[in-house]
Amino acid sequence: MVLLLAAAFLGGCTASQFGAGVQSVPPPIKGSAAVFAFAPVNGVPTPILQALSAALNREAVAQGLNVVAANNASRVYLVRGFLSAVEDGQSTRLVYVWDVVDNAGARLHRITGQQNGGRPSGDPWTGIGNTTIDLAARQTIAELASWVKS
Length: 150
Known about the structure:
By secondary structure, this protein is α/β, with parallel strands linked by helices. Helices cover 25% and strands 31% of the residues.
């Protein structure tokens, strides 16, 4: 299995809606023919991206989801993500949005979620530990797997 968020680009609840009342599009390619790749994620500390990449890989294998490198020609869907650490009083939340697009760039599906983290020490990213990352990866891969089985 390839490293999803490779070092080259290191730098809760889900919803399947794009915005007000617009539903996710059914996957044009389903099941084992659905091959995902994750695009580079910017603005996230390297240790968080490394941990997330490893967690997404583990979950993809565990849940039987086909994942390849972003430049792999067998890719059917590209997953573009945005992650943020938000300080919430005495704790931190990892907030994430993943857009699944086809090879033409059309958005087909959106996953949003958040996971509670620990107490930050200054920078909110310091409150995001492996447990939080693992939960976000598990939820992300579960949602992708569910979508391509629909």
